Amino acid sequence: MSVFLHVAFAPERRRRRIFFLLVLALVLPALSDAPAFAEARAKYVFLMIGDGMAEGQRIAAERFAAGERAASGIKERRLAMNALPVQGVCATHDADGRVTDSAAAATALACGRKTTTGRLAVDPEGLTLPTITQLARSAGMKVGIVSSVTLDDATPAAFYAHSVSRSAYYDIALQIPGSGVDYFAGGGLRRPTGPKKDRPDAFGPIRDAGYRVTATREEFDRLHAASGRVFAVLRPSPFDIDRTNDGISLAGFTAKGIELLDNPKGFFLMVEGGKIDLACHANDAATAVRETIAFDDAVRVAYDFYRKHPRETLVVVLGDHETGGMSVDAATAAETLFSVLRRQKNSYVRFSSTVETYVRTHDARTARFGDVADDLAAFFGFRFPAGVAEGRGTAGGITLDETDVRELKAAFAQSVTGMRGRKAGKEMYRTYSEYEPLTVAATKILGRKAGIGWTTFVHTGAPMPVSAVGAGQELFRGSNDNTDVHAKLRAAMGL
């Protein structure tokens, strides 16, 4: 009050000077808090979606990466997405207020509207919704859609197709030729000849629409800026933990997308780490962690592009929903988590195949737990106690206790009986879901010893961390709904 009285009774010239200084004092703090790129339009936009990835997955992956990098003498310990300057949070429920699926979640991100589970880019009544990719194309931008799963799966499909059922894979694929998307890359198509394999191959219309379809690493590597529209297929599309040197990583698909899409009008590129979700559904911590790191490698590619074009680039990273109820023990050190999970050599899919091969030639009468002990030791680095399976396992492996062994033997008994022979009931489903029992038991034991726990095999309603950097980054700070993310992307892009 005394300051304003002083201004009121000061001479006119001095009063104006004091008033100017007061205004400056009020305005400068607001300016200092303003977004660094508030006036810049996001010309290059990366929307990066980790399917099934929430806080637990990001923490576990960062601790694994920290242990891995420490072992290699690398100082950088953080995931790229966790180091972005703006961090927020996002709600994910569907139109009915329930835990979402990928279709409804992707529709909210692509279209800015809630819908019901299973629907793609349509509202709860089935009316078509415009997508952000359509809006970007109308503005003259190029568009790319990348995923580590098939491109007719829910998340990628919501950005180019409209369907009341995410399971209508063939009909969804037939919308690709008219989508106008410049670059598709990922795991190909799930049902290219229809559910009964009796329909014309969907790749025919895709090629007829002018897409250059690549099916090998060599063809992919030869793509360049003048290649035109591209549909890059990698089949089979393995988990990162199973990927061989001739495979293409999500980071590689992202880097090629930048090369093909870069132009004076800018681009919108959606990148999905789709296999994080699959690993979490199976409660396979080691595979989920490696998939999250592979996704973060793609985020790092986008971030490197941002560093070259900081005033024109926006990178937004989030999950569509959480899967598995994954949690990480706060007392577990990064080195411990890494040293345990690194023992697992392949994904749950590979080990399940090994068990199923054994089961095909054995039954409850002839099967012996000792027969699979070497496989458990080789896949998961287990060391059995003396007197159990002849104490098999390599020296220095993860030592199992009696409780672990009982759990594995009980699961093995269920594996041998087969799906038809297992006891029906909720308890059995809660224990193994529809997955191969011995595999579930083994991955859960390894995860436990790394300090990782699971509460379910399905989706949860956990909020999503949202990370951003670049033009319009401050829009994503704080609390969001997934429909807000769509609106804020459009605001940053000027759409």
Essential attributes:
495 residues, alpha/beta, 3 domains, 14% strand, two-stranded antiparallel ribbon, 19 helices, globular, Alkaline Phosphatase, subunit A, ten-stranded mixed beta sheet
Brief summary of the model shown:
With 495 residues, the protein is an alpha/beta fold.
Description:
There is one protein chain. The protein is an alpha/beta fold. Helices cover 42% and strands 14% of the residues. The chain has three domains: 2-32, no CATH class; 44-328 and 458-493, Alkaline Phosphatase, subunit A (3-Layer(aba) Sandwich), CATH 3.40.720; 343-450, no CATH class. It has helices spanning 2-8, 12-32, 55-71, 102-111, 132-138, 154-157, 169-173, 203-208, 217-221, 250-261, 275-281, 285-308, 334-341, 348-360, 369-380, 402-421, 426-432, 437-449, 482-493; strands spanning 44-50, 86-91, 142-147, 183-186, 212-214, 230-233, 267-273, 313-319, 322-323, 327-328, 382-383, 398-399, 452-453, 459-460, 464-470, 478-481. The strands form four sheets. A ten-stranded mixed β-sheet has the order 5-6-4-3-7-1-8-15-2-16, with helices on both faces. It has a two-stranded antiparallel ribbon with strand order 9-14. A two-stranded antiparallel sheet has the order 10-13. Helix 9 (217-221) links the parallel strand 5 (212-214) and strand 6 (230-233). Helix 10 runs parallel beside helix 12 (285-308) and helix 14 (348-360) runs antiparallel to helix 18. It is globular and about 70 Å long. Mean pLDDT is 89; it is low at 1-10 and 18-38.
